[in-house]
Amino acid sequence: MATGSSSGYTPLLLRIDAGGWVLLLVLIAAGIGVPYANQMLPQESPWHVPTWLVALLGKYLCFALLALSVDLVWGFCGILSLGHGAFFALGGYAMGMHLMRQIGDRGVYGNPDLPDFMVFLNWDSLPWYWYGFDQFWFAMLMVMLVPGMLAFVFGWFAFRSRVTGVYLSIITQAMTYALLLAFFRNDMGFGGNNGLTDFKDILGFSLQADATRCALFAASAVALGVGYLLCRFIVTSKAGRVLVAVRDAESRTRFLGYRVEHYKLFVFTVSAVLAGIAGALYVPQVGIINPGEFSPANSIEIVVWVAVGGRGTLYGAALGGVLVNYGKTYFTAAMPELWLFLLGGLFIAVTLLLPRGIVGTLQLWGGVLRRRFSSGDRKRGSHGAVAPAPAGGGE
Amino acid sequence: MTTSTRDKLSTSILYVNAVTVSFDGFKALNDLSFTIDPGEMRAVIGPNGAGKTTMMDVVTGKTRPTSGDILFNGRVDLTRLDEASIARLGIGRKFQRPTVFENHTVLDNLELALAGSRTVKHSLFARLSGEARDRLDELLTIIALTDRRHQRAGALSHGEKQWLEIGMLLAQDPDLLFLDEPAAGMTDAETEQTAELLKGIAGRHSIVVVEHDMAFVRSLGVRVTVLHEGAVLAEGSMDAVQQNPRVIDVYLGR
Ligand SMILES: Nc1ncnc2c1ncn2[C@@H]1O[C@H](COP(=O)(O)OP(=O)(O)OP(=O)(O)O)[C@@H](O)[C@H]1O
Ligand SMILES: [Mg+2]
């Protein structure tokens, strides 16, 4: 492996750190193994994975991708977005609109063009912004384009006028809250507070079928893996080092001649697209998308996942997304009234006791051990891996 | 405009004319005028709060002047540009508090500063050319950090950070350099080394150095501008300035 992070061009595969390899291998193993265990192993087998579990794991993978997208902006560029739930929800709605159109005349009212809720509202034709969503390719394009465009426009104004820190976090919360209110309204044409649901099939395959669930799970694993590679490509490039420079000393970066707002806009938009894809994969697996996904608390929760897993490590964020949501599944079943307190307590505990998150702390211990037992070779981490910044930072 | 100011305009690399910066009525710069010649090194001294840092802020685009003109190379109006554009024109700046990218290695700090395209697209796919590598080695030698090249910049001593930041400025290859208290917090030996370093790079760049350390300023042996209450109080050789009764008043009067 190349020494130091400044050495010329390194192929992407050599830029993946140990944790990243573990993540990719787990994803490959799960992407093949889970569908296999569901489809091929008999129900009596101890290794059989029931379909409900496939769907649940698929949901965790979507959350992991969402956490990854937040880590890209927060961990590496210091943009603490508290509105990423909005990009996730928009991707989800774009997918939901496609699935609604796929229902066709199988709805309660049997209208071939209009989703049930529109018939119920006495609408006589499809609103223009629903055009095209019957086409899968168009819907997939919108899954990326809508969150991406929103992030671009939002970021354009915010970053150009140099809104940073707490103020930026607050306006991202305002953004997702405004969308929450808008999507609650029936006359917006997105199903009001019921959202979009009762989906039947995707690409002609029934969403109730086990095989479809397995395919969606595998697709989520692939999306997370590709998303991880994309993020890793960005953060290990020179652009990634500029992002960290912006995070740690924004004005220094400006005085070196970098257009800080361009870098922020780039990474914020890429991140929003990833969040949108996560939302699009989430919706067919849970079978519903409603305005609740825009709630400001959701976006804050994502940040907790990243903090727990380890900010600025990418794979740590993915791990945090899975772990915290596993905890949520467990505790909301065991003691539902306690979950929010647990989440809050978890965040405080992590901030105070493990400021680098699980992965960051393990890395730290690993580093100490290595230094104690090895000949004191200096090489730390691999290509461009940069320690997460403590909270605050920058001028 | 008189002939002499027009001459000044066309021959100087930096032309600052009647610049005022007021913060809620308080004038941090008050009708400040001075010029810097190409290749010149200039020292700027003045008591705390004289407006030295504000003068740099206003030239490098951090602060907009309330009134006045600032021209670079006799043509470019700096008051209309932002920090990044001004930096790209070839004006570098070292902050009063040394500011380097603490989580990056020394080498990465220099690489980020190295002159070249600054666009997102370029830096996503950028690779380091052999030429750039040689230049980085050269810079590391100049700032005497060759054997710490792979260390995290955050682990450097205060003085080393100052040098690294100077090295980053040189990597930008600017025509005009602003150094805000480059010797602050340094040992005597380090201060001396810094003076040597600056003398070594003078001539190829125009340099404006702000410093409180009089011994350091004297050792530079260059023309000195004294700022006081946002305006030029005196200008000339170190000796002439130190004998100036108004300067003595300002320094002893506090
Ligand atoms: N953003 C600001 N808002 C209000 N006042 C300011 C601002 N920046 C500077 N000042 C004031 O302007 C004056 C000049 O400040 P400046 O930092 O330029 O002084 P200086 O000569 O660099 O001093 P020092 O030697 O202490 O660094 C000071 O009185 C300072 O308080
Ligand atoms: Mg100052």
Describe the structure in your own words:
The complex is a heterodimer of chains A (395) and B (254). Helices cover 65% and strands 2% of the residues of chain A. Chain A has 395 residues and is mainly alpha-helical. Chain A has one domain (18-296). In chain A, a hairpin with a 2-residue loop joins strand 2 (201-202) and strand 3. In chain A, helix 1 (18-39) runs antiparallel to helix 7 (210-236), helix 2 packs parallel to helix 7 (210-236) and helix 7 packs across helix 8 (238-248). The radius of gyration of chain A is 22 Å and the shape is globular. Chain B starts with a helix and ends with a helix. Chain B is 40% helix and 24% strand. By secondary structure, chain B is of the alpha/beta class. In chain B, a hairpin with a 3-residue loop joins strand 4 (67-72) and strand 5. Chain B has helices spanning 3-11, 52-59, 83-89, 106-113, 120-125, 130-142, 158-172, 188-201, 214-220, 238-243, 245-252, and strands at residues 14-23, 26-36, 41-45, 67-72, 76-77, 91-94, 176-180, 206-210, 223-228, 231-236. Chain B has a domain at 90-177 and 195-203: 3-Layer(aba) Sandwich (Rossmann fold). The radius of gyration of chain B is 19 Å and the shape is globular. Chain B has eleven helices and ten strands. The A-B interface holds A 3-9, 233-234, 237-239, 241-242, 244-245, 248-249, 251-260, 262-263, 266, 378-379, 386-387, 389, 395 and B 60, 62, 82-84, 87-88, 92-93, 95, 99-105, 107-108, 111-113, 118-120, 123-128, 136, 149-151, 168, 172. Bound molecules: adenosine-5'-triphosphate and magnesium ion. Magnesium ion is lined by residues 52-53, 96, 180 of chain B. Residues 23, 28, 46, 48-54, 96 of chain B line the site of adenosine-5'-triphosphate (ATP).
